[in-house]
Each structure stands twice: as C-alpha cells, then as structure tokens.
C-alpha cells in the first residue's frame, strides 16, 4: 500500500452507520417500489436501475482505490465504470422525469437511490480498509487453552 494513502481502521460506529445507511436506502427504495401502483415491468426497470447503479458505484470506487494503491487498472475498465454509473443515474432521472408520480414521490425515490449509492461506496471502502488489518484470532491463546483443556 502506498504510504501516503495509509488508511486507519474504521471504527465500529462508522461501519455500522454505513451498513445501516445501505439497508435504509435500499429498503426504502424497494419498499417504495413494492407499494407503488406501477406496472410490474416498471417496477423491474427501477429495481434493475438500482442494481446497475450499486454495482457501477462499487466498481468505480474500487478502480479509483486500486489506482491510488498503484494497482494497474485499464483505462477501458475505468471508462466502463463511469459509463455504467452515468447510465444508471441518467436512466433514473429520465424515468422519474417521465413518471406520473407526485413530485414528493419522485423526490423520495431519488433520495433513497442516492443514499444507497453513497452507502454502498462507504461499505465497500470499509470492507477494503478492514482487509488491511489482521482479523482477531485466538493464536495467542491456543497453547494455554489447549494445555489446560487437555485431559490425559
């Protein structure tokens, strides 16, 4: 890892808040879809746009972070990530603009979508940051515990 980009271990509160934000954003969006009076094909469109956006955001965040860590990433893949995220946002904007919802419902879907995108990037960042730290283990206790637990 590049020393100028050394990461600190994320706190448990930050990890919990990012996972909670993702659950709230996605949950709100999906509950809104479930309860809407849209046709099933429209619901499928909005659900697919959510999945595309989440994947593109995570993938783009990973490519940016890989470049920061001096891991080679092709320009083509980075471009595909940008196009995927842009397409997801554009399709959502066009879909909401043309939808017959009240303005408050359009705002709800837009904000839940953006919360989900932000949260998924934060969750991915936390997962990556945590991978740089050793996981807690019982290596230091194995000998003592096993010796005490051994019955001859």
UniProtKB/TrEMBL annotation:
Coiled-coil residues: none
Segments forming domain YiaAB two helix: 14-66, 77-129
Transmembrane segments: 12-32, 44-60, 72-97, 103-123
InterPro entries, alphabetized: YiaA-like, YiaAB
Pfam families attached to this UniProt entry: YiaAB
One annotated GO biological process: DNA damage response
Tagged with keyword Secreted: no
UniProt GO cellular component terms: plasma membrane
Keywords from the UniProt entry: Membrane, Transmembrane, Transmembrane helix
PANTHER family assigned to the protein according to its UniProt record, in alphabetical order: INNER MEMBRANE PROTEIN YIAA, INNER MEMBRANE PROTEIN YIAA-RELATED
Descriptive protein name: YiaAB two helix domain-containing protein
């Amino acid at each position: 890892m590049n020393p100028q980009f050394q990461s600190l271990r994320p706190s448990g509160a930050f990890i919990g808040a990012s996972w909670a934000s993702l659950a709230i954003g996605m949950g709100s969006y999906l509950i809104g879809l479930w309860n809407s009076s849209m046709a099933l094909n429209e619901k499928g469109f909005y659900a697919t746009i959510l999945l595309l956006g989440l994947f593109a955001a995570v993938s783009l965040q990973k490519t940016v972070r890989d470049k920061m860590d001096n891991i080679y990433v092709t320009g083509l893949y980075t471009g595909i990530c940008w196009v995927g995220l842009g397409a997801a946002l554009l399709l959502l904007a066009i879909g909401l603009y043309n939808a017959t919802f009240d303005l408050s419902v359009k705002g709800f879907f837009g904000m839940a979508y953006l919360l989900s995108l932000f949260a998924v990037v934060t969750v991915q960042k936390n997962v990556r940051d945590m991978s740089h730290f050793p996981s807690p283990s019982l290596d230091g206790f194995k000998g003592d515990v096993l010796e005490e637990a051994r019955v001859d």
